[in-house]
Amino acid sequence: MKTVADTLGVSRSNLVERLKGRSKPRGAYHKVGDAELLPAIRRLVDQRPTYGYRRIAALLNRERRAADKPVVNAKRVHRIMGNHAMLLEKHTAVRKGRLHDGKVMVMRSNLRWCSDGLEFTCWDGEVVRLAFIIDAFDREIIAWTAVANAGISGSDVRDMMLEAVEKRFHATRAPHAIEHLSDNGSAYTARETRLFAQALNL
Fold it and tell me: Which Pfam families does the UniProt record give (predicted)?
């Protein structure tokens, strides 16, 4: 028993209890009060989709102090946001040096694409966020995506990239390398997005 416990890195008493069926494995995390915090966190994330969990926690605690409510630990905010898919994608890309000289103009289509985003508030209070890919030569909007009351995700950007390649080349990979310029938003710099762009030859 000692050898098994040492190998698994658990105490012998815990192992004995588990073998006898007395101890139950922990279920999914649930803390009373998380449901109360969720609407406020979601509202703050909708208002500031580029904020990480620490900044959202700071805003939440500012509101709670003003209402004479106890503050919330940032890690708890992180857990709630993670459970409801509100966390920003991690910046995992290693950015290379500048690949262009600052001039966006090119001599023909499908050499350089640019991507950017914008947001606007509708009359009913909904915030719509839009991202697009435009050809630097012919100025055609090749693909775009829009979401309401949420941030543009890495998945949205990847779908938009694939749509642009399919529209221009009727294939799932560009026949030659295309320079794709964008800002440093987490949706663009996430490792998944960078690898996906490479697979598309962008």
Answer: HTH_21, rve
| Residue 71 DSSP class | -
User: Hey, what amino acid is at 133?
Assistant: I
Q: Is residue 76 part of a domain?
A: yes
120/97 Cα distance (integer angstroms):
33
How far apart are alpha carbons 149 and 161 in whole angstroms?
A: 22
- pTM beyond 0.70: no
Which uninterrupted H or E stretch holds 119?
strand 112-121
CB neighbours (10 Å) of residue 159? Answer: 14
Q: What is the spatial distance between Cα 53 and Cα 74, in angstroms, rounded to a whole number?
A: 7
73's CB contacts (< 8 A; 6+ apart) are 57
Residue 162, pLDDT score = 93
Q: Per the domain annotation, does 13 fall within a domain? A: no
Stretch (H or E) spanning 181: strand 179-181
- Classify 148 as helix, strand or coil: strand
Domain boundaries, position 72: 34-83
Number of structural domains found in the chain: 2
